[in-house]
Design brief:
Layout: E1 2-3, E2 6-11, E3 21-27, H1 38-46, E4 50-54, H2 92-107, H3 109-112, E5 115-125, H4 127-138, E6 147-153, H5 158-162, E7 173-178, H6 185-189, H7 194-197, E8 202-207, H8 223-236, H9 247-252, E9 260-264
Parallel strand pairs: 3-4, 3-5, 5-6, 6-7, 7-8
Antiparallel strand pairs: 1-2, 2-4, 8-9
Helix pairs in contact: 1-8
């Protein structure tokens, strides 16, 4: 399917005539693709969310085609080891993809009658996590005004930490990491890292035994727990629920063993 000149994959919620359902936009990892995390996107759709995932220009999964066939390839990024060299121009095409898709949904009467754009959540893995954190205010020039919740899965967030921009986040955020995700999670959970620098309400879940690709469709024993925490966060993030409840922490703390959960609400 094409929306806003971008190839996208769409998962629809169960049909409910006359009801507009909330929207989740999924941003894939660097060199991943829109269908890389179907265990998660399909689950969200089955629980009542429209899920739309654009193919960014760096997509390389088998069968992935980015854009509409005439967009320039993604530029080579600065080194991931030099986050201080990143800026709001780094991978800005990913932000433009999501903005174009949202504009296309708003301009399509058939979709707009079924999708509630005022209840918008963003989910991203790895560089997709960078993308959605940027859109929630990590980069001021990227900010989307109607983001209501952000789920950042093993996200690359060091550029925001280096530039001291995470205080600008304007939506509840859940970071998810793993004890075997050595390249990303330590930077999220460290003192003065992404979690510490983000404003409340915020959550961080650290899954025991999860490596960087646990949030893709590669086999992983933590898929069910990833889904469980994703749903619990969505249910507690306003306005997906009329009143946000910090019961997520108490209700899920026993589930976090051997994972760990941090929260500030």
């Amino acid at each position: 399917m094409t929306l806003g000149g971008r190839n996208v994959v769409v998962w629809a919620p169960p049909a409910t005539p006359g009801v507009r359902s909330p929207l989740v936009v999924f941003s894939h990892g660097y060199l991943g693709c829109a269908t890389q995390s179907r265990f998660l996107t399909q689950m969200l759709a089955s629980h009542g969310y429209w899920v739309v995932a654009p193919q960014h220009n760096d997509a390389t999964c088998r069968g992935a085609h980015s854009g509409s066939g005439h967009r320039a390839p993604a530029p080579r990024p600065p080194s991931f080891a030099k986050p201080e060299a990143w800026s709001d121009s780094t991978f800005v095409g990913r932000a433009e993809d999501i903005r174009a898709v949202l504009d296309a949904i708003a301009g399509d009467s058939a979709l707009a009658s079924q999708v509630d754009l005022d209840r918008l959540g963003l989910v991203g893995h790895s560089l997709g996590g960078y993308t959605v954190v940027g859109l929630a205010g990590g980069w001021a020039s990227w900010r989307l005004p109607k983001v209501r919740a952000v789920l950042a899965l093993s996200p690359y967030t060091e550029p925001f930490v280096k530039h001291n921009t995470l205080a600008q986040l304007s939506a509840p955020i859940m970071y998810q990491g793993g004890t075997l995700d050595w390249g990303i999670t330590p930077f999220v959970r460290r003192a003065n890292g992404a979690y510490d620098e983000s404003p409340s309400p915020k959550y961080f879940v650290d899954f025991a035994g999860a490596g960087h690709f646990a949030w893709t469709d590669f086999p992983s024993p933590v898929h069910d727990r990833i889904n469980e925490y994703a749903l619990a966060f969505r249910a507690n993030a306003s306005p997906f629920r009329e009143k946000r409840s910090d019961s997520l922490v108490a209700a899920r703390r026993s589930e976090a063993d051997p994972s760990s959960l941090r929260s500030s609400g």
